[in-house]
Specification:
six-stranded mixed beta barrel; alpha+beta; 28 helices; 882 residues; single chain
Length: 882
């Protein structure tokens, strides 16, 4: 019975639909007859009158095609019909399609490229076993300016032995190796690590095995694990390398394993790992802080529970060892957060920026579709007359817009693949997994979703306008200029306002970053970067086991380098500025009691050779520089920075004062201050200089030089090969690494800021261009619509300047509203960028004023061209314009 009722309902529905189609067809027939009669009255022949009437409806074939389409009443067939018809419409209008696809491809491609970076860096799990349970554990010494400080060995051992929240903990210490015996000597970055590290991470060597626990003891056999890249590059991917001996720092190590190609821990520069094997002396050391500690939480243990446990242990150690651990806490940080570092805010800002670019692209395409919908109103009227419902019309236009967005998505995906290749050249090396950035399944899903949502966003306004009009008005002559036209103008005006507002926000963000970056690059690092060649020359302790041998090597090296043509001066030092924070120690001041342990400031300490300050271009403010007379058997001397002088001797002359490393009760000799030099930025330009002092390398017994710096008269890099050969002339097995100019070092130190500034600047410029194109398009369409009106005005005596002012005022009014809206939004949104700025406020008035000027200038140009065209309208032609 139910089935019979269903059939009966379908028959009635079909009958009603055919009757409605017949009524609509009769209405069209009557309207066509009226048009033919009007054309005949105008003097046309019968054939001319009929053809002219058909052209106003797009032709007889289009009427038949639309009529056939409207009779399809099964929903899947309707959707397929909509897609086919939409595709034909796009093919029929190649200019419109190409412009729209390019606009969408730029927006979607930029989003996909940036999302690829975010996916790899922020979203993709770390390539380790149970990565959500991996954490880094740091010492907390905020009172000394180190909220996350590297732990001392003895503190790490106590953490490892006393905790109940970690399955295991592993220590990591920096270590570089001189690889010799295989081709040219090479300095290779590596780490000393706990034997349990690879098991803790859940990563096994590709070849061979991991370290054994018995190998992680002082005096055990020396073994090494190498990276996949080093194995391929230096050993030709020889699988028989396992068990063979290699020479590292003048000692023989047995190769135990080769890691997989994707393994990078703790950084991608590391290529060798050896057991950390603490000596008994290291095991009791709480004064030297140089470890990194990674741990795996037990199942069911939260980060908060682990932090509470480490706080308890740290408090216990403060009581037991007040001399070293007073006010020293512990901080537990997820490993993923540590790996991501401080790039997360910049990436999120860039994702928001490309989202804004996509919105502007959508607004432009929506404007194009609105203008196109206005032209197609006769076609739409025909569809309604043939029985199409508003929902059917809306679906048809949305199908076209989604199809257009799909084409833009495909083109955008191709652009993103090319964009990722370019991005990799700008991404700072400090960003983990940067070279692994690619288009994977998640990026594809993201691109498809963005394309679909984009199609719906920019298709809604044209679909709403196209389906919401008066049939009778549209079928009349000039009906397209009526209600729907004015509604479309309002929508286009709102889209222009939105484009301007969003562009203004992006331009403000880019302007602030550019202003910040300029100020950062103008920061005085404390030395001259021009004509300065730098390189690492780190001597192995086995071959150069005492200070005398090391001093003899560096003295001879500096002497020979200074005789080379093009060299003004040369010097050696430990850890050049902007390459390393610098080793730091506490000091005591003669005649003053030692402060409590938690109030002893750390002083960054460098050991240097004579002429270091002159070579680096560091200004000497008082006293003298070191000379060849400051030898190991001479009285101890020290040069301090101006900040150190102000801190310990405010308002006094520090020359002749004495200090010593460590506490005043130790056996080290007092050092006389012989000079004061300008402050130098240690690790990065954004950080204020710390307290600093310099010691003669022949007198220092706790640090040693590891870098050579050369001041030249010519391009410094042109001397790199000659200087390296000079090193090998002294010791053929001594590697030279990290060869670069100081200008390159400075550039790399601001790589993260340059990355953010460059990309946001590109996106803001793209937004400005798209907004200007959108303004131009809307104003051109407006001029075309008002051609008849302009002709009347000029026929009544209006001057060209009057028409120009009228047209410009219309466009600039929309731009001004957009600027005001964007200004209000920018004041709020730019606050999230505060952490990315240096030396400039998030509401910097100069930047805001400059961006207003730039945007208004671009908008004025975009408005002026259509306005100028309006002044050239011929009144006689315009009065006959339809």
């Amino acid at each position: 019975m139910t089935r019979l009722r269903g059939w009966f309902s379908r028959l009635i529905g079909l009958f009603q639909k055919k009757r409605r189609d017949a009524e609509m067809s009769e209405e069209i027939r009557q309207h066509l007859e009226g048009l033919i009669e009007r054309n005949l009255a105008a003097g046309m022949s019968p054939d001319e009158a009929r053809n002219a009437a058909l052209r106003q409806f797009g032709g007889l074939e289009q009427i038949k095609e639309i009529a056939r389409e409207q009779r399809v009443w099964i929903w899947p067939e309707q959707v397929w019909q909509d897609v086919r018809f939409g595709f034909r419409m796009l093919v029929k209008n190649p200019g419109f399609t190409i412009v729209a696809v390019i606009a969408l491809a730029l927006g979607i491609g930029a989003n996909s490229a940036i999302f690829s970076v975010i996916n790899t860096v922020l979203l993709r799990p770390l390539p380790y076993k149970y990565p959500d349970r991996l954490v880094m554990v740091w010492e907390e010494a905020t009172h000394q300016g180190f909220p996350r400080n590297t732990p001392a060995v003895a503190n790490y051992i106590d953490w490892r032995d006393q905790n109940h929240v970690f399955e295991d903990m592993a220590a990591i210490a920096p270590q570089s190796f001189n690889l010799t015996g295989v081709g040219e000597p090479e300095r290779i970055d590596g780490r000393r690590v706990s034997a349990s590290l690879f098991h803790l991470l859940g990563v096994e060597p590709q070849l061979g095995r991991a370290f054994l626990r018995e190998e992680d003891k002082a005096g055990a056999n020396r073994v090494v694990i190498m990276s996949h890249g080093l194995w391929q590059r230096r050993f030709g991917a020889d699988r028989s390398i396992i068990g063979r001996a290699v020479m590292l720092n003048g000692e023989s190590y047995t190769v135990a394993g080769v890691m997989p190609p994707t393994f990078q821990f703790p950084s991608r520069e590391d290529q060798l790992w050896v057991p950390i094997a603490f000596t008994p002396k290291e095991g009791t050391d709480r004064g030297n802080h140089y470890l990194e500690v990674v741990g795996r939480l037990k199942r069911g243990i939260s980060l908060q529970q682990a932090q509470a446990e480490m706080n308890t242990i740290a408090a216990r150690l403060q009581q037991q060892y007040p001399e070293f651990n007073t006010r020293i806490g512990a901080v537990v940080v997820p490993l993923h957060e540590h790996v991501v570092g401080n790039i997360k805010p910049a990436l999120l800002v860039l994702l928001g920026a490309v989202g804004f670019v996509l919105l502007i692209s959508c607004a432009n395409v929506a404007n194009l579709l609105l203008a196109r919908a206005a032209v197609r109103q006769k076609e739409i009227a025909l569809r309604v007359a043939l029985g199409a419902s508003r929902s059917r019309l809306t679906r048809q236009f949305l199908a076209e817009s989604v199809l257009l967005a799909g084409l833009g998505g495909v083109a955008g995906l191709l652009l993103s693949v090319a964009g990722i290749k370019l991005l990799k050249g700008f991404i700072p090396e400090t960003i983990s997994q940067a070279q692994a950035i690619t288009v994977d399944a998640r990026v594809l899903i993201f691109t498809v979703a963005v394309s679909l949502v984009t199609g719906l966003i920019f298709g809604l306004a044209p679909a709403a306008q196209a389906s919401n009009f008066n049939l009778n008005e549209t079928l009349k002559e000039g009906g397209r200029e009526s209600v729907s036209g004015s509604r479309g103008n309002r929508i286009r005006g709102l889209l222009v306002i939105s484009e301007v507002a969003v562009s203004f926000i992006l331009l403000i963000g880019a302007g602030l970053l550019i202003n910040s970056f300029v100020r950062l690059r103008n920061v005085d690092p404390g030395f001259r970067t021009d004509h300065l060649l730098t390189m690492k020359v780190e001597l192995p302790e086995v071959k150069y086991s005492d200070r005398a041998r090391r001093s003899a090597f560096y003295t001879e090296l500096v002497r020979r380098v200074e005789t080379l043509p093009g060299v003004k001066s040369a010097a050696v030092a430990s850890n050049l500025p902007l390459t390393y924070n610098g080793d730091s120690i506490t000091i005591s001041i003669e005649g003053r009691p030692d402060p409590p342990p938690d109030q002893r400031p750390d002083v960054v300490t460098r050991v240097i050779s004579p002429r270091y300050f002159a070579t680096m271009g560091i200004q000497l403010l008082q006293g003298r520089e070191f000379t060849e007379r400051d030898r190991a058997d001479s009285p101890g001397v020290v040069v301090i920075s101006e900040k150190t002088a102000r801190h310990f001797w405010p308002g006094e002359n520090p020359i002749g004062k004495r200090l010593k490393p460590g506490s005043s009760g130790n056996r080290r000799p007092w050092l006389e201050i012989v000079g004061v030099v300008k402050d130098v930025r240690q690790m990065e330009l954004t950080a204020e200089p710390k307290l600093q002092m310099y010691l003669p390398y022949e007198q220092a017994d706790f640090f040693q030089p590891n870098a050579l710096v050369v001041r030249t008269n010519i391009d410094p890099l042109s001397l790199a090969a000659t200087v390296r050969k000079t090193v090998w002339d002294i010791d053929k097995d001594q590697p030279v690494s990290n060869i670069s100019s100081m200008e390159q070092v400075l550039s790399e130190s601001v790589a993260r800021q340059r990355f953010s500034t460059l990309l946001l600047g590109i996106f803001a410029t793209l937004a400005l261009i798209l907004a200007a194109v959108g303004i131009y398009g809307v104003m051109s369409y407006s001029v075309a619509q008002r051609t008849h009106e302009i002709g009347i005005r000029m026929a009544l005596g209006a001057q060209r300047t009057d028409v120009l002012k009228l047209t410009l005022s219309q466009g600039l009014r929309l731009v001004l509203i957009g600027v005001i809206a964007g200004l209000a939004a920018a004041v709020m949104l730019t606050r999230v960028m505060s952490s990315l700025l240096f030396g400039v406020s998030a509401t910097d008035p100069v930047t805001f004023a400059a961006i207003v000027l730039v945007l208004m200038s671009a908008a004025l140009l975009a408005n002026y061209i259509p306005a100028l065209r309006a002044t050239k309208v011929d009144p006689m032609v315009a009065l006959r314009y339809e």
